[in-house]
């Protein structure tokens, strides 16, 4: 049966990448036997990558000895000149002082204070799973960010209210509180700004702050929950103010007491009082007015900041349990750090550099074009760049890439092995808008068995 609609579009998009890859590399049948590695030492590979490799293949006993101690004594990773990288480490627990691990952006101080208050985090969790935040009550934040899927949704592209499809895959959330900028294109400068984006997006929750606040105020449980989490009403508590809070300004309570804030609070209180039915008791008014758009965003942001990936055997290995990884997985770890060049972008506790890179999947000038960060900044240096996702629990977070193009991790690794697609700016005539693929993307010369090992390691993260 011929493909139709979106299925045909996705097949065409994948074909556009595959055409630039040597057929032998794409169709190679991987070996599942960890001992069937190449006999020769890879050419052009840094000495650290070739450590423990002899004419007979990889020496696993040697690798175990090299990785048996603290990370400071491990073989040096393959890092390109100019790359600032961080060694792997445990993910900071929520119990650590939040100012030590939250991203140093404009919302850091407020987020750090909120995530340290259990009542705010618990409120955010309730809101995260509540479909009342969408206009028709069809979806919640958890519809696209499911805990069992590493807080993604398993779909190539996000699907919102009325089954409208977006342009990109639902973003994994584990790195969100650690990232200076959010979304695939970095258009949000804080986590509080990011969590409100889907609410206003017509292809996602298709709602607005004023409508969501009004709905929560009318509920039986939320007024008391907001009052318990945040206290009484603030200057931003009226429906009129909520409507104007599409960008979610910082809470007045975090700015201190000033004359202008007092004046604003008085005006807001008057507006709220004017909208209260005469039969409603003053106490109920105070409770309901504890809900506003800013506090809604703060609660959601605090919950997202509390999310942590489940503990894995990779964490056990980092903690010193040398037998936590089997031979194939250990080889994959070594290849990840060396010959596969993954540490250039996937380093640190979350296995992400929180930066933006063009890996050659912008489809410039073709159907499905997506120029990534450039669409938010209009800076030609950002053409085709997308945020590096965390690889924590990556095996549960497919399909992969910003556009969900790869349904299979092994296929994705083969594409990296081949250097992904060609994305070279034309020289005649020159095109100033043609994206330039990152210099970190190069053919890797991994054997099928080495790709198997790399895949096995990814499944431990």
From TrEMBL:
Residue ranges of the TM segments: none
InterPro entries, sorted: Cyt_c-like_dom, Cyt_c-like_dom_sf, Cytochrome_c_Peroxidase/MauG, Di-haem_cyt_c_peroxidsae
Pfam families: CCP_MauG
Signal sequence segment: 1-33
Cytochrome c domain segment(s): 119-308, 327-461
Localisation per UniProt entry: Cell envelope
Keyword Heme part of the UniProt annotation: yes
Keyword list, A-Z: Heme, Iron, Metal-binding, Oxidoreductase, Signal
Gene Ontology molecular functions: cytochrome-c peroxidase activity; electron transfer activity; heme binding; metal ion binding
Positions of the UniProt region annotated as Disordered: 420-439
SUPFAM superfamilies the UniProt entry points to: Cytochrome c
GO cellular component, one term: cell envelope
Taxonomy, superkingdom: Bacteria
Protein name in the entry: Cytochrome c domain-containing protein
């Amino acid at each position: 049966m011929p493909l139709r609609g979106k299925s045909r579009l996705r097949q065409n998009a994948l074909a556009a990448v595959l055409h630039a890859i040597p057929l032998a590399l794409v169709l190679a049948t991987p070996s599942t036997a960890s001992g069937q590695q190449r006999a020769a030492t890879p050419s052009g590979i840094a000495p650290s990558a070739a450590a423990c490799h002899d004419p007979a293949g990889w020496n696993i006993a040697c690798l175990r000895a090299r990785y048996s101690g603290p990370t400071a004594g491990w073989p040096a990773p393959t890092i390109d000149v100019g790359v600032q990288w961080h060694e792997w480490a445990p993910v900071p627990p929520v119990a650590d002082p939040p100012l030590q691990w939250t991203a140093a952006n404009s919302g850091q101080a407020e987020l750090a204070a909120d995530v340290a208050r259990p009542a705010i985090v618990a409120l955010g969790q309730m809101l995260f799973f509540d479909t009342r935040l969408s206009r028709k009550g069809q979806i919640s934040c958890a519809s696209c960010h499911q805990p069992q899927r590493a807080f993604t949704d398993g779909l190539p592209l996000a699907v919102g209210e009325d089954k409208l499809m977006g342009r990109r895959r639902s973003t994994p959330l584990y790195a969100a509180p650690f990232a200076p900028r959010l979304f695939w294109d970095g258009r949000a400068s804080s986590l509080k700004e990011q969590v409100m984006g889907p609410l206003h997006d017509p292809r996602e929750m298709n709602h607005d702050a004023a409508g969501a606040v009004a709905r929560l105020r009318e509920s039986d449980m939320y007024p008391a929950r907001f009052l318990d989490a945040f206290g009484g009403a603030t200057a931003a508590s009226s429906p009129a103010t909520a409507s104007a809070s599409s960008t979610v300004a910082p809470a007045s309570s975090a700015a201190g007491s000033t004359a202008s804030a007092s004046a604003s609070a008085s005006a807001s209180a008057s507006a709220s009082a004017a909208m209260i039915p005469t039969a409603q008791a003053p106490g109920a008014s105070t409770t309901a007015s504890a809900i506003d758009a800013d506090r809604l965003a703060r609660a959601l942001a605090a919950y997202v900041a509390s999310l942590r990936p489940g503990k894995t055997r990779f964490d056990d290995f980092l903690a010193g349990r040398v037998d936590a990884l089997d031979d194939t997985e250990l080889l994959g770890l070594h290849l990840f750090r060396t010959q596969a060049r993954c540490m250039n972008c996937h380093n640190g506790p979350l296995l992400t550099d929180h930066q933006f890179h063009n890996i050659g999947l912008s489809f410039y000038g073709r159907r499905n074009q997506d120029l990534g960060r450039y669409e938010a900044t209009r800076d030609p240096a950002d053409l085709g760049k997308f945020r590096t996702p965390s690889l924590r629990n990556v095996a549960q977070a497919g399909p992969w890439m910003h556009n969900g193009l790869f349904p299979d991790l092994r296929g994705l690794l083969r594409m990296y092995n081949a250097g992904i697609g060609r994305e070279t700016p034309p020289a005649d005539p020159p095109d100033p808008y043609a994206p330039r693929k990152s210099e970190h993307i190069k053919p890797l010369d991994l054997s099928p068995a080495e790709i198997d090992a790399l895949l096995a390691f990814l499944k431990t993260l």
